[in-house]
Amino acid sequence: MSKRRVVLLCVLAFVLCALVVVVPYALRLQEGSTVGVEDSEQELTDVADSSVDEEELAPEPVVEELEEQEDVLPDAVSIEVPFISQAPNGEWNLPDFQDACEEASVLMAAAWLRGETVKPAPAQARQQIEELIAWQQTRGRYTLDLSTEDTNALLQDYTGYVDTEVRVVEVADDLRRELAKGNILILPMNGAVLPSPFYTAPGPERHMLVVSGYTADGGFVTQDPGTVTKGEDYVFAASDFVASIRDFPSGYHAPITRTDKLMIVVRPADSPVGGFE
Hints:
Blueprint: H1 3-57, E1 77-78, H2 95-98, H3 101-113, H4 122-137, H5 148-159, E2 164-168, H6 172-180, E3 184-189, E4 207-214, E5 220-223, E6 232-236, H7 238-244, E7 262-266
Antiparallel strand pairs: 1-4, 2-7, 3-4, 3-7, 4-5, 5-6
Helix pairs in contact: 3-5
């Protein structure tokens, strides 16, 4: 065999060996590259999905409710309530009138619910008080003193109007918030603490009156039946007023053992309340 043929055969053998080694390696590299691209795309997809999930799970922004702005109150409120004295003719010596502050307060609220704005003449007011006392007596529920709960029940039963409720008073703004909504209030008071110049000393320990507004300087406008004429739109300073709020038990001057500060909230009727029983 010639030398040239031997060299040719050696070259061919080398090429064949190279093909056997290089080709499979190149194929493996190509497959690995493809798998890497697919994995990378999968990772991107996972990240995007994760981002969507986080957006879906993220808490919604907190929106302030209108109720949180309730403390922004008008500077003053005035609600027109026709005044009634518990002793329209000054008959303080008669028990029916001396202790008729609850009846007078209920009658004022009832007149307001009927849409009345003019106070009744003394004779008419006296008759209304007598009729309300008789209404209670025929039902076996009359006592000289009525607690806040019982006064609210009397108002509801006598008028048939039930959009009223008894609530606790903690601060002066509790009263102002209700008045700013257009509601009137009936409050139990310790008249011995409430600084009215018109009470006979030492003042009534068990008293009830209507609150119909407040002034720009914070005082409370009342319809106080504890005087013949001076209680109409009488203003008490806020600090004195709130300090004097105190419930008392129903009965005949029963001992007062608690100091609950309560109010009856009377909401305006959609239409004037009709005739009563």
